[in-house]
Amino acid sequence: MESYSFSIDGGTFHMSDSATLSEADAEAFAARCREFLESADTSGGFGGAKAFLAQAAEAGFGGIVFDEAYGGAGLSRDHDRIWRAEKAKFGSPDSEFVISQGMCLPVLNDFGTEEQKRTYMPDNISGTTMWCQMFSEPGAGSDVASLQTKAELDGDEWIINGQKVWTTLAHKSDYGVLIARTNPDVVKHAGISMFIVDMRAPGVEIRPIHQIDGGTHFNEVFFTDLRVPKENLLGELNNGWNQATAMLMYERVAIGSLGGGSLRQPNYATLKEIAVKNGRIGDPVVRDQLMKLYAMETTKAMVAMRARAEMKAGKAPGPGGSLGKLFGSQIFWYFREIAQNIMGTEATAWELEGDQAESMHLRVLNSFQAGIAGGTDEVQRNIIGDRVLGLPREPSADKGVPFRELKVGTQTS
Predict the structure, then answer these.
(1) How far, in Å, CA of 291 to CA of 293, rounded?
(2) Residue 251 catalytic?
(3) Comparing C-alpha atoms, which of 270, 338, 265, 342 is closest to residue 296?
(4) Fold of the domain spanning 244-387
(5) Residues in a beta bridge with 37
(6) Mean pLDDT of 339-352
(7) Which residue in 251, 351, 353, 378 is the catalytic one?
């Protein structure tokens, strides 16, 4: 087993890998994946996802690239690519855990102490526990570094007070990765630290946010004198911004390449099937729209494959993740337009009969969040402009100013 590393803002992160699989070995592993997937619980949903992850871990498919000492399979990025491609054919049955395993898990692996890794990673990989990410606040969304949640050391415990918002699946999570301000006397990016938080602990209040589709996927989370053990500091004190940046890059790769690993066009396939059933497949406008969507999804899949190849080569999961994330948002917007063109009112009127209409209304309504979740389209464009195109950054009025002297977000004094 070989290792490789990449750097982000001065930090070095390590992953394991092996030489490229031979064609025979790759096919043999793919066959193993298919055999498992055909017999596993792929029903989806929260309960189905937990059952699927438990079965995958038991069969040696959990945490493909992570060390066996931490509950992983200890295999290569090539194995991971094959596993993802085969799993996607079954509808990505573990998608409920995309934050828990696509973001929190690699951050635990990168920054956790040996004790933290052995304590938390196996249960995360097996789906025994679910994790959430707690970054955004009412006054710190796109500008996360303006966060006001604070953590103060009191003997062997950190006392945390503040509020987070738009926390995905906080109500179902056992643990969360939280960033809080630990030093207000330095510039806003420099005085932030990262913590592991027990979501069931006294001092944590979770309030659901009711969505237009009737769901409660997101939450507000309030912390009132929450006491967190000193050893739950994740990574270095006051290095939380660099660690959060790494986590956001993992997030954009996870969202931008969800179900990735092969050339797939799932939204095109869905709409093509509906167009055939509705007798619209012969309409030249519909055909043109479908082929544009096909090209967009193919391009997005290639970007995802490139991002994963760069990670294997030791490069940071950087702007490629933002490209995939932004393009994915554009695909959802276009998907909504085509769905409404082909289906008419059935795309949004779920009281109509049939699973097709009910499923489509959820997809159409949820498509609006694609331009917000994981960083807004505007943020992604700024990242791409700065880090890909080399455009000058926007002026920053708070450069070099200690956080304590700033009027940010919801601060009134």
Answers:
(1) 5
(2) yes
(3) 265
(4) Butyryl-CoA Dehydrogenase, subunit A; domain 3 (1.20.140)
(5) none
(6) 75
(7) 251
